[in-house]
């Protein structure tokens, strides 16, 4: 089975990957987290920066995840800088609350948003693979749920039933249909095909 070192300092992502790659690929935690400056303008650039930085230090194939929440009417507010929104607020519950307040006057389509995840598998400078996944939904009117992490409590995914539940209330659904789950599924299909050849 192919093995990759996880180029991430985010323990929540590591937890999700453990389930998502089960039986497919081996993804190991890095011995130490590296500080990588995310200076790219796109998710792809930042995912590559992280994957390459860990590969240069640890000399093994790596996997990086660059992800974020894109509010369609305010694409630059979060997006690639999702982790750096409202840096004066260290807790995600406060960041979520601040977003709710910023969007107080927004209704209907103005609340549309999506989570995006770009995975970068870095084997060498000549062999790099990218996979992307998205999940569409809307920004809720309040924080709901205590599962997941980050902006999950304010994100209401488009799904049936349309019961208004947030991603933080839907851990099983998230594990199957999230941006990260979809990117992982594409990568597993690809590696399965290339390994079978
Ligand atoms: P690494 O770069 O070390 O992997 P990070 O937390 O800095 O960790 P990113 O730069 O990719 O990760 O930032 C992603 C941001 O988007 C961060 O603020 C997360 O809270 C948020 N995010 C990403 N995936 C999410 C998810 O599944 N649920 C909720 N929020 C998510």
Q: What does this protein look like?
A:
- The protein is of the alpha/beta class.
- Helices cover 31% and strands 24% of the residues.
- It has helices spanning 11-20, 43-58, 92-102, 171-177, 179-196, and strands at residues 3-6, 26-29, 62-71, 112-124, 127-139, 155-157.
- Strands 2-1-3-4-5-6 form a 6-stranded mixed beta sheet.
- A hairpin with a 2-residue loop joins β4 and β5.
- α4 crosses α5.
- The two termini are 14 Å apart.
- The model has no long low-confidence stretch (mean pLDDT 96).
- It binds inosine 5'-triphosphate.
- Residues 8-10, 13, 38, 50, 65-69, 82-83, 115, 148-152, 178, 180 line the site of inosine 5'-triphosphate.
What tags apply to this protein structure?
197 residues, alpha/beta, Maf protein, 6-stranded mixed β-sheet, 6 strands, binds inosine 5'-triphosphate
Can you tell me the CATH class?
Alpha Beta
Radius of gyration: 17 Å
Helix content: 25-40%
The termini sit apart by 14 Å
Count of strand segments: 6
CATH topology type: Maf protein
CATH architecture: Alpha-Beta Complex
- How does the major sheet shape up? 6 strands, mixed
Instruction: Give the total of domains.
Output: 1
What is the molecular shape?
globular
Number of helices: 5
Mean of pLDDT: 96
What small ligands are held by the chains?
inosine 5'-triphosphate
Strand content: 15-25%
Strand order of the largest sheet: 2-1-3-4-5-6
The H-and-E topology, N to C, reads as EHEHEHEEEHH
């Amino acid at each position: 089975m192919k093995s990759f070192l996880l180029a991430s300092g985010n323990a929540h992502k590591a937890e999700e990957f453990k389930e998502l790659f089960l039986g497919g690929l081996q993804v190991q935690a890095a011995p130490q987290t590296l500080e990588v400056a995310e200076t790219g303008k796109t998710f792809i650039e930042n995912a590559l920066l992280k994957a390459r930085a860990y590969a240069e230090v640890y000399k093994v194939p790596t996997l990086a995840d660059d992800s974020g929440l894109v509010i369609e009417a305010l694409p630059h507010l979060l997006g690639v800088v999702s982790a750096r929104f409202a840096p004066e607020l260290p807790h995600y519950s406060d960041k979520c609350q601040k977003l709710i307040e910023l969007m107080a006057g927004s209704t209907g389509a103005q609340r549309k948003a999506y989570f995006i995840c770009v995975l970068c598998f870095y084997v060498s400078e000549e062999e790099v693979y990218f996979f992307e996944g998205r999940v569409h939904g809307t920004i809720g009117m309040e924080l709901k749920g205590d599962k997941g992490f980050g902006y999950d409590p304010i994100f209401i995914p488009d799904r049936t039933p349309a019961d208004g539940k947030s991603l933080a209330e839907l851990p099983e659904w998230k594990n199957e249909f999230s941006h990260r789950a979809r990117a992982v599924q594409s990568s597993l299909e690809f590696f399965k095909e290339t390994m079978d050849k």
